[in-house]
Amino acid sequence: MHSMDENSVPDAARTVLTGDDIERVLTRVAYEIIEANKGTDDLVLLGIPSRGFPLAQRLATRIAATADGNLDPASLVGQLDITMYRDDLRHSTTRTPAPTRLPAGGIEGKVVVLVDDVLYSGRTIRAALDALADWGRPRIVRLAVLVDRGHRELPIRADHVGKNLPTAKSEKVRVHLAEIDGTNEVVIEGAA
Ligand SMILES: O=P(O)(O)OC[C@H]1O[C@H](OP(=O)(O)OP(=O)(O)O)[C@H](O)[C@@H]1O
Ligand SMILES: O=c1cc[nH]c(=O)[nH]1
User: Fold this and answer.
1) Centroid of ligand 1 to alpha carbon of 46 (angstroms)
2) 34 burial type by CB count under 10 A (0-12 exposed, 13-18 middle, 19+ buried)
3) Could you report the per-residue pLDDT of 132-145, keeping only the tens digit for each?
4) Which of 20, 39, 45, 175 is the most buried (most CB within 10 A)?
């Protein structure tokens, strides 16, 4: 608990994206992905567990809907486990790896869009690039994130950003998605 005086900032959670905001943002990002790829050919969306996967599914549903019912969203989407590739493996508590699942067409020669909820230091994405190399050689790898909160520690940037969110390092961005958390919202916790 922080002591409160008239100058202190309460560290209650602030909602920065509502469920409706998330829906709108994902629709825009889906169109950006199609635009960058000049269509849907060879597209594969790989979500990074845990919340990157439902986001990848939501994007795949939107992208498939632009193809007049000729595209099954499931054929576009998969998930990429990065647990064993993290650079903090020796220091962190044990995490149960989520299985990597690739769509039936694999990733060889494809345009792979990695999808995650938050981009912060960039270390998760560095690990994802290593993990990906074990599964094949995509033609192009791009990155889509719901929130870029800054504070990068590696030379990594996102191609598609739902919302750029300036944050203090002391804050935490929490993404809640119905598929995992039962609600849809993005909140910032902690004092700025
Ligand atoms: O850019 P970075 O500094 O790597 O931070 C971003 C990552 O941190 C969070 O994952 P977390 O490890 O908390 O796991 P989770 O997705 O299971 O919540 C978030 O979902 C991103 O994957
Ligand atoms: O604030 C943060 C930092 C890393 N990952 C998150 O999900 N939130």
Assistant:
1) 15
2) middle
3) 999 999 999 999 99
4) 45
**Which ligand is the nearest neighbour of the Cα of 145?**
1
Note the pLDDT tens digit of each residue in 47-91: 999 999 999 999 999 999 998 778 999 999 999 999 999 888 766
Whole-Å CA distances, 139 to 21, 42, 44, 125 = 32, 9, 11, 17
- Alpha-carbon dihedral of residues 175, 179, 184, 189, nearest 10 degrees? -30
pTM of the model: 0.93
Copy the structure tokens of residue 58: 């939501």
ipTM of the complex: 0.96
Q: Which fold has domain 20-165?
A: Rossmann fold (3.40.50)
Task: Report the distance separating Cα 37 and Cα 31, nearest Å.
Answer: 10
Does residue 51 have its Cβ closer than 6 Å to ligand 1?
Answer: yes
